Amino acid sequence: MPTSKLTKRTIDAVISPASKQLIYWDTEIKGFGLRVLPSGLKTFIVQYRNAEGIQRRMNLGRFGVLTVEQARDLARLKLAAVIVGQDPADEARQSRNAMTVAEMCDWYLTEARAGNILGRKNLPIKSSSLDMDESRIRTHIIPLLGKRVVKHLKIADVEQMQTDVKNGKTAKPRTGGRGGKATGGPGVAGRCVGTLQAIIGHAKHKGLLEVHPTHGARKLAGKKKTRRLSVTELELLGKAIAYAEANGENPVALGVLRTLLLTGYRREEAQAMQRHWLHADRGYVAFPDTKGGAQIRAIGPAAIRVVQLQGELAGNPHIFPSAVGSGPFTAASECLKRVCGLADISGVTPHTLRHTFGSVAGDLGFSELTIRAMLGHASQNVTQDYVHIDEALKLAVQRTSDEIERLLTSGRAKLQRLDCQTAFKRDPRSASKRDPLFG
User: Fold this and answer.
1) Which residues lie closer than 8 Å to 383 by C-beta, 6 or more apart?
2) d(CA 248, CA 260)
């Protein structure tokens, strides 16, 4: 093959070969050359043998994009790396073939759903958690960083994604049967960072990465939910529930709402309760799975009465059964919106009812540690042969449940003193906030 010192003049004078490629080697730096194709394309290359004696050849860049001197300097750097045992061509190949963020997210979801990735307490990640992870991945992470190679990410890239999500850059209508719009915001932005950082951490643990490239990225602090129902609002809610019940509201949905108010359970826990989990004689519900794993949770007499009044549906084991199939009822949130509309109460979610239960317990003088146990934050695991709840905890749950029932009943009593036949003549689903019953 031709050899000469490569200069701009000699390269400009090169005539393209008629068929196969032709390589011109530089006489100044061994291994530095110029490849010329029949099409006229001229590319700088470097050739060497790695530490294992295998010959490698890699492109440095096109002539015209790189000058001869730039290409020569780059060749010196690559050959210097070879001297200390590196393999620049292999590193470039790995870089080209490295996982993108989108590919790593797909890997994570596949492996996690197969139970091959462990989460809290070294247990497989729950499907409900994976559903939320996948929603953040598809809605926010992949649109912003999906094409980026994970190993090349920087902390600034992750924090910029967080800023973009917070500012609504990925806002769009939801798909897959979910209503509303994904709007982003600080809370979602912080959770997206947490999800991505966890995925990269799992990939590193599984050997897909040598280092966590974005370790140390700062996550926006979430806004703590503090909304609770006041005494007056609990009375209004009791009145609204009684009116809704008398005017055709779904009794199963109302049963869920009453249970949430009287237990402090999470919405998913209350809706999914099955009859054989309830041990009414001993005052507890044995949940085989919750956010904190399998737990036993105290339940007071007031809530037990609500649960035991629920009608059974053949073939469905749930206390609050779906009208279709064998699954649980899942639309309590929509019922809560309608009832709160009747009472002219705003900003209420199922979590508000849970927070209200804990707050009422605090008003009654129970300690933070006791309240955490009442809400299932403290460890109350189910063992195979022994189930026990401290009697003091049962008493705390009962007193809190009784106080909330008293306030709800007070609202119902006020409704009964009104002339219901003239107060309302319409479906509660269309009730106006200015309804005369609620002032």
Assistant:
1) none
2) 20
Listed as own residue / partner, the contacts of 198-201 with beta carbons closer than 8 Å and 24 or more positions apart are 199/104, 199/105, 199/108, 199/133, 200/104, 200/150, 200/153
What pTM does this model have? 0.63
C-alpha count within 13 angstroms, C-beta hemisphere, residue 341: 13
State pLDDT tens for residues 353-400: 999 999 999 999 999 989 999 998 855 444 433 445 688 899 999 999
Residue whose tokens read 């999470």: 266
Q: Where do the domains of the chain lie, and which CATH numbers do they carry?
A: 8-97 (3.30.160.390), 101-205 (no CATH), 231-438 (1.10.443.10)
C-alpha distances in angstroms, 334 versus 162, 173, 256, 328, 342?
30, 19, 12, 15, 13
Beta carbons within 8 Å of 38's beta carbon, 6+ residues apart: 16, 17, 18, 19, 20, 21
Give the contacts of 28 (CB within 8 A, at least 6 positions apart).
5, 6, 72
Neighbours of 389 (CB within 10 A): 18
Cβ atoms 128, 119 nearer than 8 A:
no
Map tokens 């009287």 to a residue: 262
Whether 30 and 10 have beta carbons less than 8 Å apart is answered as: no
**Dist. CA 27–CA 2, nearest whole Å:** 10
